[in-house]
Amino acid sequence: MLARLRGPLTDRRAGLLLGAPAVAVVLIVLAMLVFVAIQAWPTFQHNGLGWLGDGPAPTGGTVDQQLGSMVEGGEAPPPSAYAIKAWPLIFGTALTTVLSIAIGIVVSVLAAIFIVDLAPRRVRNVVVPVVRLLAAVPSVIYGLIGILVLVPFVNDNLISEGQRQSVQNVIPLTGPGLLVSVVLLTLMVTPIMIALITDALESVPRGWREGALALGVTQWRATMSVAVKAIRPAIVAAAVLASARALGEAIMLSMVSGSNGYAPRIQDGLIFLFEPLRPLAATIAENTESINSAALKSTLYAFAFLLLVSCFVLSLGSYFIKRSLRAQGAR
Amino acid sequence: MSRPATESHDPAGSDGDGTRGAYPPPVRRIALDRAPTVVADDPAERPLVSPSIERALRPATGRERLRIDELSIFYGDAPKPAVNAVTLPVHEGEVLALIGPSGCGKTTLLRSLNRLIELTPGARRQGRIVLDGEDIDGLEMTRLRRRVSMVFQQPNPFPMSIFDNVAYALREQSRKRPSKRDLLPRVEHALRRAGLWDEVSHDLSRPALRLSGGQQQRLCIARALAVEPEVLLMDEPCSALDPISTTVIEQLIHELRSELAIVIVTHNLQQARRVADNVAFMYLGDLIEYGPTEELFERPRAERTREYVGGTFG
Ligand SMILES: Nc1ncnc2c1ncn2[C@@H]1O[C@H](COP(=O)(O)OP(=O)(O)O)[C@@H](O)[C@H]1O
Ligand SMILES: [Mg+2]
């Protein structure tokens, strides 16, 4: 039976058989992108480039107020109902993603070096499975821990009364915000990065390391300048995978970000870390019940479009970076 | 047993059988058997591969650079040391070949000369190694490994360009990152000494891993030479290479000999004979015999040496 199936499966047929799903996936993704773009079109059309901007829209108010007034527009809203300047949400998304990935890269590379080069076998036999387990923890659990533990901790111990008062007319500081969001997001994306980078580091031939050591460089330099350098493509791949996860994280960030369409201000110094925000994905998740408002619907699709395009750009970028690194022989 | 076993004498009892069985080991047999494809079959009439490699017996006259003094290496709980109280001198301008059956401790001995053995968990050392009158334990590790540089059995160029490979150690040892232009003369010099310059000079930015095996090994030699070592350690540098590349590298060893001391581990007796000035024969961790190449091969004094050398030369 099996032999009969195997017999007529020529390379050409196998190619078609395997190629068909790949083509189907590409088509589905393209269709999705086109559909989302069409749905998002009205809001882009009404706002122009101002859509990406900051500050009050022509109709006034913060992003959250703009979103709120869209709900009242109903199914056939006037053009003014579309008015929005989405910068705070975009900034919140970029900020949480970039920070958590940046921290994640450093932490995961160091952790992988520890696991592969330094950890005694017994420690390693515990750490590796635990890391893989952590990578599979549902994000809502991180959100719960954030709300129950981290947010009260930040509110009670880290934010001083002086800090609270200095910005009280602009934004209330209650615990949830950038710091808790980034900490939890980092915690969420780092395990998978550690797992991927550990695998890559383990596949680095011993000979490269020994070769470097035999040339009189220190262990640390041998690791950094040869082993880590050699696995840069894997680090890029891990970072992109983690970015996609961070960009799309909605529930957890909705729980711990303070869910406020506010762009944290770096010029506020340390307070910056405690200021609330709300990324695009969380905004989508929180507004889905008001989808029968045409203006809001189009706006949410626009958020989705932005996230989709970001992921495509990340994947493409990583593809080209990896290609140029591999041309030099990195793996 | 594809090689004709023409034993000139009968080793006594079961011990003799055991030793015959122990070497040469099957893996290396291939390398040994393959070598004659470039060399005539009868060792007595064998023309040396290249006239420049041919040379008269030359006693090592240079001053002593490296002295291995009662060196023993133990691995973990193994009762018998992998290297057992070996004493050997290495002179300036000589090629010292370490020969012996697989597992006799050649690699272990070589790796202890630049303290690379300390990377192996559980490896312990007794005895001293002296470089130019100084105990190597007293030298800074990074300094030692630049003075005593190493080429490995498997070519191991880094996944970088040819230039970056040779410049690697130079860059690592300087505080401020030197520019490519500053490095080029030294990179070129190293590549020339390794006999690779003419083949790669047109494109130094090529990935090193795209080179052929023989070129890769010469690149590794260039990389090791770039730090201007006093002693060059080579662990079976040709065992992973084809006969032509082997010839090229042997020629190279011959040319480099005047500038530095070379210790080469080889499994290939013909190779030891072609490139070495002095030969040390090891067996099960013991140094059995040490002496000028010609003498050791033609008039071995120890019976084990006679057996081992005789195994190939009939
Ligand atoms: N890392 C190690 N741990 C334990 N024993 C080892 C290790 N490396 C080598 N040995 C043992 O030491 C002996 C000498 O090995 P080696 O120096 O590699 O021999 P050679 O290079 O002459 O083939 C062998 O018996 C080998 O089994
Ligand atoms: Mg060996």
Please describe the topology of this protein.
The complex is a heterodimer of chains A (331) and B (314).
Chain A: H1 2-6, H2 11-47, H3 63-73, H4 87-118, H5 121-135, H6 139-158, H7 161-166, H8 178-202, H9 206-214, H10 219-230, H11 232-248, H12 251-256, H13 280-287, H14 294-327
Helix pairs in contact in A: 2-14, 4-8, 4-11, 5-8, 6-8, 8-11, 9-10, 11-14, 13-14
Chain B: H1 13-22, H2 26-34, E1 64-75, E2 83-91, E3 95-99, H3 106-113, E4 123-131, E5 134-135, H4 141-147, E6 148-151, H5 162-173, H6 180-193, H7 197-200, H8 213-225, E7 231-235, H9 243-256, E8 261-265, H10 269-275, E9 278-283, E10 286-292, H11 293-298, H12 303-313
Parallel strand pairs in B: 3-8, 3-9, 6-7, 7-8
Antiparallel strand pairs in B: 1-2, 1-4, 4-5, 9-10
Helix pairs in contact in B: 5-6, 5-8, 6-8, 8-9
Bound molecules: adenosine-5'-diphosphate and magnesium ion (MG).
Number of helices of chain A: 14
Oligomeric organization of the protein chains: heterodimer
> Helices and strands of chain B: which structural class?
alpha/beta
Count of extended strands of chain A: 0
- Chain pair forming the biggest interface: A-B, 22 and 31 residues
Task: Give the uncertain stretches of chain A in residue-range form.
Answer: none
Number of domains of chain B: 1
Profile the largest sheet of chain B.
6 strands, mixed
* Chain-averaged pLDDT of chain B: 81
Helical residues, percent of chain A: over 70%
> Could you name the ranges of chain B where pLDDT drops below 50 across 5 or more consecutive residues?
1-60
Q: Estimate what percentage of residues of chain A fall within beta strands.
A: under 5%
Radius of gyration of chain A: 24 Å
In what order do the strands lie side by side in the largest sheet of chain B?
A: 6-7-8-3-9-10
CATH superfamily of one domain in chain A: MetI-like
How many angstroms separate the termini of chain A? Answer: 41 Å
Q: Would you give the CATH topology of one domain in chain A?
A: MetI-like fold
What profile does the largest beta sheet of chain A have? none
Question: What name goes with the CATH superfamily of chain B?
Answer: P-loop containing nucleotide triphosphate hydrolases
- Class of chain B in CATH? Alpha Beta
